[in-house]
Known about the structure:
This protein is of the alpha/beta class. 42% of the residues lie in helices and 19% in strands.
Amino acid sequence: MQRRHLLATLAATAFATPAAHAQGSDQPIRWVVPYPAGGGTDVLARTLSEAMRGPLGQSIVVDNRPGAATNIGAELVARAKPDGLTILSADNAVLAFNEHLFAKLPFHPEKDFSYIGAIGRFPLALVVHPDFPAKTFAEFLAHVKANPGKVNYASPGNGSPHHLAMELFKNRTGSFLVHIPYRGAAPAMADVMGGQVPCMFLDLASGLSVMQSGKVRVLAIGSAQRSALLPGVPTLAEAGVKDSEVYAFQGILGPAGLPAPVVARLNAELNKSFQTAAVQKRFADIGMEALPGTPAQFLALARAESRRWGAVIRAAGIRLD
């Protein structure tokens, strides 16, 4: 109780806890995840919240609010009171895709949020069913170019990073594949493993085990350098596809107007969490690169990604409304 009384007193200074401007430090932080429980974003949020709750002196409750291509969870946080008690796991959708995919959003990706810090990024890899006739990336590209519109590809859904990664690939290589959207990464991956759909871009967080087991063949990876988890797989750049980095990235947002000391404290504890053994193990297991840095650096990353993917989305004519 003495610790709680101390935090409540320090909260009034706006430097002690993220709830500095809330009713008191006894209240938990609500960490909104705009995806169902059990997915990669949810697991990351729970891992980080465990690492951060002790140093912050507050409990953290993960609140899953899936739906509408992450817009439901994002709007909830955008409309929340800027008291440090509500934060959001934001990924490519909130930060870079949705403003280009929807004619109207219930929030503005910059004006309605406070940028707290980047979490990290993990690459997507081009995979095919083991029986697919192409054994290498060069053979795959030759095959799809020789068969325009005859090769299907799977994705977890319209507007997902996996969908847009293939659209970028098509744009950069002048190839034409047909999109088969699924409801989630698991069913899409299952049909590629089963041979119902021959290929897809798959993230390491969801698919590393099937990549390493040989249930799919990995032809190229969208990271800047080769992954230590798949050292024999060339990058798309090595395979000759320029400007072809494709990855999912995440960070933490709060409502617009969060006091600067609250943002600074959350950012500091997020960056410190990357040094904990549990977080480092989780990141290593899924091939995730931590992105420690300032809120300004996180905002700059989101802006750059929005410009890059906005061009891809417009060129492909993709709309979700």
